[in-house]
Amino acid sequence: MAWVLKMDEVIESGLVHDFDASLSGIGQELGAGAYSMSDVLALPIFKQEDSSLPQENETKHPPFQYVMCAATSPAVKLYDETLTYLNQGQSYEIRMLDNRKAGDIPEINGKLVKSIIRVVFHDRRLQYTEHQQLEGWKWNRPGDRLLDLDIPMSVGVIDIKTNPSQLNAVEFLWDPTKCTSAFIQVHCISTEFTPRKHGGEKGVPFRIQVDTFKQTENGEYTDHLHSASCQIKVFKPKGADRKQKTDREKMEKRTAHEKEKYQPSYDTTVLTECSPWPDTPTTFVNNSPTPAPTFTSAQHNTYSVPDSNSSSPNHQGDGTSQGSGDQLHPSATIQETQQWLLKHRFSTYTRLFSNFSGADLLKLTREDLVQICGPADGIRLYNALKSRSVRPRLTIYVCQEPLRSIQLERQDAGNGDSSNGAIYVYHAIYLEEMAASEVTRKLALAFNIPLHQINQVYRQGPTGIHILVSDQMVQNFQDESCFLFTMIKAENGEGFHIILK
C-alpha cells in the first residue's frame, strides 16, 4: 500500500507536518478510525527488524578487554573491521584489562587466569591450509618463530611458555586485578604467504587473537572465559610506518564528503570479541598417550642427566659402543625414522621430518641440518646420524691374570708340541675423568666385580712395591698403556685389593 513507509521516509517526505491529519487519513484508509502516535509506532511497519537482539540493559558485558598500542589505519571504510599495520620484529604492547562489573565471575577473584596469544590467518582459504603454510614458513626460516613474547618488556605475566611445535602462539598466566601488559613480536610478514612473488604483491592479513581461560577443579586452565581479536598486516621494519603515512596522505586528498565514508585513525587498537580458536586449549594440553612435544618454560630448560654409575654413552662396560645398535640405517622406514628421532631427543623435529625415511635423513649434509634445525640441534643431529662418539680423555688396556685371563693354547707348527706362550685378552677402558675413582669404577664394570668389594687399587713399582693409584698418577698415565692385574684379599678379609702391573 502507498501509505506503508519507513519512519525516516515519513520524516523526509514532510508528512510529519500536520501529523494528526495524516493519522486520520491512515485511520480512514484502514477503516479503524483515528490512531494515536503510540498506536502508529506499534504497527509492524515501524518496528525494528532486529528486535530479536538483546536490549541495551541485556547487552553482554565482556569480562576482559585487550588493547594493542598500535594505530589503526585511516583508510578503512565505516562499518568495516579496523586494520592495524605492524613492523616485523618490533615489540607491541597488549594491555590486559579487567573489565568485570562488581560480582561478575567471582570464582576468579584472587586467582590467576591463562591467556594464549596467537597470530593466525585472516583469510578462510589460508586457515584451511594453515598447517602446510606454517610448515613451509618453518622450512624457509629454520629456528625462527612467527610470534614471540618480549619478556623483559612485559609486565605482570607469569609462567611464560612456548611450544616448539606451535610457532605462532605463546601462553602465560596473569592476575586480572594487577596491571598486566604483554609485549609481542611478530616475525612473519604478510607477503611471505602470497601465492606469486613478482614484487609489489598485496600481502595477506593476519589476526592477533587472545583466548583467556580459568582454572578448573583438576588444576588445568581449560575453562574458556573470553576471546577477542583484531586484523593486522605485517611489513618489513619501518614498512608499517610508511604504509600508515601513505594512507594518511591519501585520506587528506579526499573531499570532506568522501572522508565521511571512512573511519578515523585511532592511536590504539581494541580487540573485538570473537569465538575461541578451534583448537584451544587442547593444543596446549597433552591428553594423548603417544609421545608428543610439550611446552617448555621460557626461562627453564630440562636436561637428561646420565646415571653416575653408568659408563660413557659411547664406551660402556668393556668399551664397546652401545650407540652402534641405535644407529639410523638407510633402510629405516618413515615410522622407524620417527621413533629414532624421538629416542634421541629430537621430538621437536618429528613433524618437520614426518615424510623422511632413513635414507632421506642420512642424505642431508651438516650444512643442511644446521640450516633446518639451527646450529645447536643441527650439529647434534648430524653427530647422532653419523654416530660421532665423544673421544675419551684416556684409554688403557687391562687384562686379569692368571685365573680370569683367557689362555688359548697354540700348537707349534714345527713339532706339534704345545706352546708355553698364552694369548692374554685385554679389555679397553675409556676414561672420561682423569681420576683414580674413575679407574676403579670402570674396572668393576669391565670385569663384573662388585664395586663395594674393591678396597684399593695399587700399581706395582720397582722391586715389587705397591704404589697407591692416585688422581695424579692417573693423570700421568700414557695413553693406551697396557696393564695386567691381580686381585688379592684385603688384610681384614673383607674385599679385595687390585694390583696393576
TrEMBL record:
This protein's record includes keyword Transcription regulation: yes
Positions with biased composition (Polar residues): 280-315
Domain Grh/CP2 DB: 60-297
SUPFAM superfamilies: SAM/Pointed domain
Region (Disordered): 233-329
Biased composition regions of type Basic and acidic residues, renumbered to the chain: 238-262
Subcellular location: Nucleus
Start-end of Low complexity biased regions: 316-327
Molecular function terms from GO: DNA-binding transcription activator activity, RNA polymerase II-specific; RNA polymerase II cis-regulatory region sequence-specific DNA binding
Annotated keywords: DNA-binding, Nucleus, Phosphoprotein, Transcription, Transcription regulation
Pfam families: CP2, GRHL1_C, SAM_3
Gene3D superfamilies: Transcription Factor, Ets-1
Annotated GO CC locations: nucleus
InterPro entries assigned: CP2, GRHL1/CP2_C, SAM/pointed_sf, SAM_3, TF_CP2-like, Ubp1_SAM
Family the entry assigns: Belongs to the grh/CP2 family. CP2 subfamily.
Protein name as it appears in the record: Upstream-binding protein 1
Annotated organism of origin: Patagioenas fasciata monilis
Phylogenetic placement of the source organism: Eukaryota, Metazoa, Chordata, Craniata, Vertebrata
Recorded name of the encoding gene: UBP1
